[in-house]
Structure formats: C-alpha cells, structure tokens
Amino acid sequence: MRTLVMGGTRFLGVELVNELLRAGHDVVAFHRGNRQPEWNAPVEQIIGDRNVQQDRALLAELDIDVAVDLSAYTADQTRSMLETLPKVPHYVHVSTLNVYQPSPILPWPEDLPYGPHPLWGSYAVEKIGCELALRELRPAPLSTVSIRFPLVLGPGNFIAREEFVLNRLLDNELILFPGDGQAVHQYVWLKHAATALARAAELVAEGFQPYNVASRRCNTSLEGFVDVCAEVSGTTPRVRTVGGGATGEDLPVFNGVDCVFPFSNENTIGDISAADAAGLIEPFLPLHDMIDAALQHLLNEPGRRTWSRTEAEQRVLARLAVTEGSR
Mean pLDDT for each 10-residue chunk of the chain (327 residues)? Predict the structure, then answer.
C-alpha cells in the first residue's frame, strides 16, 4: 500500500519506516528535514512542518491508502491532519496508556474511560483530544486504529530511560526512587512497537479501534527495573527511596525530563489481549536483552556517557542532606 508516515526520522519512526518497507509498502515520509536517517530502501520525502497550513497543503493531493501519525501530540494537530486528509481510507494514530482514567484493577482494558489523570498533565489531555477528534471526524466506514503504547525502550532512546539508570549504575552513583519505588510499569521494545504499527497499517475495519500494545511479560517495579539494569551491566545498585508521592516531590504532574527517576511511582499496565488476538503482539523477548542492547549502544556512544543529575534529583538530595544534618 502507499503509506504516509508523519515523522519517521528518529527512533521509533525510523524502525517503523523500515518495517513498512520490509512489508512491501510504498512509503512517503513527511518531516521537517532536521535528520536524514538510514532507511532500508528509497523513501519519498516531503519536507514541511505539520503546524504550518501551507506545508500541510503539500499532502492534500497525495494518493495514499494509509496514514500513520507518529507526531500528533495535540488535538489541534490531529484535527488539522484530518481536515487535510479527510478521505484517507485507513488512519493509524500513535497514542498512550496515559489516556485512561487509572483504575486500581489491573491490567487496563481498552474500554476503560478516558481520564485525564492529573499526573500526566497536558500530555494526557491532548492525547485524549487526539483520540476524540479521530472518533468524531472519522466515522465508519472510514477505518481508524489507535495504538496505545506504554514506555518505549530501545537503543538510542531519545528519552533518557535506560540511559538514566545505566549511567548512574556505571558511575556507582545513588539512584533515587520516588515514593517506595514499588509501582509497576509496562514496557514495549522499540522493534515490537514498530512491527505493531506496521501491522496496524493493514488492520482495516470500519470505525475506531484502540489497542494496547506492549511487549509480553515485560512489567517491573521501578526497583525491579534498576535490578535488571544492574544485572545486565554487572554493577551493584546504590538506591534510596525518597517518598514524595508518585513524583518524589509531591508534585501534581510528572515531568519526564526533570524527574527524580524516569518513571513515576504509579502503576501503569494495559491489557494486551485484544492486540494479541489481532496479531499485533510479538513473541516474548526478555527485558534483560532489551537492556543489554541499550547498554551496548550507550558504551559505543561516549558522548552519551556524559551526564548530570536532573534539577529534581538535586532538589531531593539537598532536602535529604538538610533533614539528615538536623538529626
């Protein structure tokens, strides 16, 4: 099929384009031209900014079968794309488990009500808005799939997740856990995520269909994630719980950039049975193998071994020093 990819030039996007090419798709990538990735085969490229109407107009005359939107972070971005491509037969949207109103009953099925949960801030609000726009503006018989991912792991991750933990372990530095560090998170391996999206591009049905997609048996607590990273890297973790709720500082919104730890102390697990039945879930891959791939990439990129503590870590460490000094 002729498939438009919104983005496609970094991390998950590169893997997705390559997976689509392997599956025989004719790929058109719309991106801002900031990177030139090494795709497996020639890809038609349209350079532009999706937030600029004149640039979006470049897409209006495309004859495409599928659009896969990796870069819609706001409801307005989704609405503007749907106005530009009102009749594309099949649409795949990259979403998140953060659209749910969290339930104490785990794992969360796709029919769980929308949040937002305050912890995920404007990111969740906008991602919910994206899905609502898709439901409203793409009624049957148009086909729409929303893939709700948990935390994505993979070598060269542009969000410091594995790297955050591995750098501190390799340098024998203290790792801080918000709350008690026992909340459980779910992960999806980069290549598993790309394969799911490529298959979703062929999963045509009438109306809106959401799927939770994660890697099999890939759930750990914050403490468990550090333990796996330590086992893979041959290090002994130095850890400390710091309280402060889900963020470590009793903040209402988790900030994944300025954080005490790269995951919140809040359970986040989706039910993947529907995606499994639809053929979107890959065979089991041990979390240890995922972390090892990230470790090897980190060791091969010396520049990524230069790091500094986040401001959140510095604030918490200063607070702990004052508390202990007053005893």
Answer: 93 96 96 88 93 93 95 97 95 98 96 96 98 97 98 94 98 98 98 98 95 97 98 98 97 96 98 98 98 97 95 96 74
* Strands (E) located in 104-162: 143-149, 151-153
Is residue 168 a contact partner of residue 270, using CB atoms and an 8 Å limit? no
Count the Cβ atoms, other than its own, within 10 Å of residue 223: 17
- Tell me the C-alpha distance between 212 and 147, whole Å: 6
SS3 314: helix
Question: What is the domain partition of the chain in residue ranges?
Answer: 2-154+187-212, 162-184+217-268+283-325
DSSP 8-state code for residue 298: H
Residue 190, SS3 per DSSP:
helix
The model's pLDDT over 274-327, given as tens digits with 9 standing for 90+, comes to: 999 999 999 999 999 999 999 999 999 999 999 999 999 999 999 999 887 765
Question: What confidence tens digit (pLDDT) does each residue in 221-263 have?
Answer: 999 999 999 999 999 999 999 999 999 999 999 999 999 999 9
Q: Which CATH class is domain 162-184+217-268+283-325?
A: alpha beta
DSSP summary character for residue 284: P
Please check whether the domain covering 2-154+187-212 is classified as CATH 3.40.50.1220.
no
Q: How far is it, in rounded angstroms, from Cα 152 to Cα 159?
A: 9
Cβ atoms of 172 and 234 closer than 8 Å: no
How far is Cα 43 from Cα 206, in angstroms, rounded to an integer?
Answer: 29
Nearest 5°: CA angle at 22, between 19 and 24?
115
Sign of torsion over alpha carbons 197, 198, 199, 204? positive
Contact at 8 Å (CB) between 245 and 265?
yes
Is the CB of residue 269 less than 8 Å from the CB of residue 150? yes
Q: Assess contact for 145 and 92: CB atoms under 8 A.
A: yes
Helices (H), 90-155: 121-137
Say what angle helices 222-233 and 287-300 make with each other, to 10 degrees: 60
